[in-house]
Amino acid sequence: MTHRSLIIGASGGIGSAITARLKENGSDVTTISRSEDGLDVTDEASVAECMKKAEGEFQLIFVATGALEIDGAEPEKALKDVSAKALADQFAVNCIGPSLIMKHALPMLPRKGPSCFAALSARVGSIGDNQIGGWYSYRTAKAALNQMVHGAAIELKRTHKEAVCVALHPGTVATDFTAKYAGRHKTVEPSEAAHNLLSVLEGLGPDDTGLFFDWQGERVAW
Asked: Rounded distance, CA 34 to CA 152, Å?
């Protein structure tokens, strides 16, 4: 049987690298993106319409959508910088968007045999790992996404015994997304990040569903 993959957000740095790597490995890849398909993850009608491009079942569904800076609003350094609009925008893109995709995409996983749904999160979305504060809107939206993934995994396990549903931290990847904020953090090229993330997914099983992993396969605290 041909391994089929669905990549949402395939025109971004990580999404395009994941797509390329999967094709190199012989997977039959279907892609959906804003640039190619007009996908607006904040609009359920748009999500539903774009998902019509995906037919049949997929052994891997990978959500690589997201944004760090929206409408010029940079990550907050202090609580006084928080605004209702920035919070709402971050939730719309980084939590609501992937959640709507989950709603429409999870039924495309096969009920029998191994399968995987993965969504890009971020270590800064970890409440347990937060030691320096700041970045309120982005952190909170990613923490909310983690909760959605965890809850969806519980529901999915009732009907898909071999499925894995996880959140992933890719590390600091050298893309336009991180260009202004990488700072002293070591960065990796998208191709290396794709290799790392797919290697992590290959090593996961049903007992790992509902969890949050980094690019090394280490579990990240909620």
From this structure: 24
Assess contact for 135 and 124: CB atoms under 8 A: yes
Question: Any idea what DSSP says for residue 171?
Answer: -
50: which residues sit within 8 A by CB, 6+ positions away? 32, 37, 38, 39
Q: With H, G, I as helix, E, B as strand and everything else as coil, classify residue 175.
A: coil
- Determine the Cα–Cα distance for residues 140 and 9; give it in Å rounded to an integer: 21
Question: Is residue 188 very low, low, confident or very high in pLDDT (cuts 50, 70, 90)?
Answer: confident
* Cβ pair 48, 81 in contact under 8 A: no
Backbone angles phi and psi of 11, in degrees to 5: -90, -10
C-alpha 176/C-alpha 125 separation (Å) is 20
Q: How far is Cα 138 from Cα 67, in angstroms, rounded to an integer?
A: 9
Structure tokens at 111: 């009920």
- Tell me the CA distances in angstroms from 149 to 14, 35, 53, 139, 162, one per residue in order: 19, 25, 23, 15, 16
| 25-81 tens-digit pLDDT | 999 999 999 999 999 999 999 999 999 999 999 999 999 999 999 999 999 999 999
Strands in 38-192 per DSSP E: 60-63, 115-120, 163-169
- State which H helix or E strand residue 14 sits in: helix 13-24
Rounded Cα distance between 186 and 175, Å, is 13
